[in-house]
Design a protein that fits this description.
262 residues, alpha/beta, 11 helices, binds coenzyme A, 2 domains, single chain
């Protein structure tokens, strides 16, 4: 399928996915969601890709939400399908064994804020603005916003943000734990690439199992501590463990590209 609203590039093992509908502030149409799904499949399956950055085209918006024009005349059944598709995709991003960072370069509203929140962490440009303005539209966030905002910022903060629908700037977002770093617009991608490069030089097996263990603590009916022990014990049976510990004892840098990591 020809991709019309997203751009991708791969450099040094890092895939950059740019949501590219700047004239609509990169709003997520259903076609855009499908394109992102294809790219996420590629992140999972292409061995050349070690990690990814998601960002928006232009300097004004990361993603200004789901495409509101597509909601007109929706039935509850259509709304359910839209929410399910969006949640399925964002869950796959959150559970990706390869790290995915959101580089937020402007408005991250509604589905855009939800997209940023399902990434493993967020780096913001100084002009970034976050919010879940659905209450203004007479709807409820449908791509995981009610859950992940509370996970990232705490229940009371999520209540206030989602119930007022107000936007917060990058400084405020950082102060409540929604973003890890604030940099200039020019530095946003290079800075994100630098952090990603550091992560992808580590054991891919350990990175994947760490993501899995942290996520387990947020899964219904799963004991995160038990999942951690399972992943910890499985690590000892991997090439990465052999390489990492040998390198330490031999006082050299580990080379995790040598063998299969699990
Ligand atoms: N869905 C569809 N189109 C959107 C959109 C969205 N979520 N967000 C922005 N756009 C479109 C606008 O309709 C406009 O299109 P037009 O030029 O054809 O009229 C274009 O993007 C530019 O947006 P505009 O509103 O003119 O820019 P602005 O700088 O005045 O305002 C925002 C920026 C982000 C404050 C404003 O666009 C906005 O409130 N967007 C909706 C945010 C939202 O509610 N998102 C949650 C959706 S669930």
């Amino acid at each position: 399928m020809e991709r019309k609203s997203t751009l991708t590039s791969i450099k040094n093992g890092i895939l950059t996915l740019t949501i590219n509908r700047p004239e609509k502030l990169n709003a997520l149409s259903q076609a855009t969601v499908l394109e992102i799904s294809e790219v996420v499949d590629e992140i999972y399956n292409n061995d050349e890709i070690k990690g990814a950055i998601i960002t928006g085209s232009g300097e004004k918006a990361f993603v200004a939400g789901a495409d509101i024009s597509e909601f007109v005349g929706f039935t509850p059944a259509e709304g359910k399908m839209l929410g399910e598709r969006g949640q399925f995709l964002f869950d796959r991003i959150e559970r990706s064994p390869k790290v995915i960072i959101a580089a937020v370069n402007g408005f991250a509203l509604g589905g855009g804020c939800e997209l940023a929140m399902c990434c493993h962490f967020r780096v913001a440009a100084e002009n970034a603005m976050f919010g879940q303005p659905e209450v203004n539209l007479g709807i409820v966030p449908g791509y995981g916003g009610t859950q992940r905002m509370a996970q990232h910022t705490g229940k009371g903060m999520a209540m206030e943000l989602l119930l007022t629908g107000s936007m917060i700037d990058a400084e405020r977002a950082k102060s409540i734990g929604l973003v890890n770093h604030i940099v200039t617009q020019e530095e946003l991608i290079p800075f994100s690439e630098t952090i990603l490069s550091r992560i992808i030089s580590k054991s891919p097996m350990a990175v994947a199992k760490t993501i899995k263990s942290i996520n387990a603590g947020y899964d219904d009916g799963v004991d995160g501590y038990k999942e951690e022990i399972k992943n910890f014990s499985e690590s000892f049976d991997t090439g990465d463990f052999l390489e990492g510990t040998s390198a330490f004892l031999e006082k050299r840098k580990p080379d995790f590209t040598k063998g299969k990591s699990n």
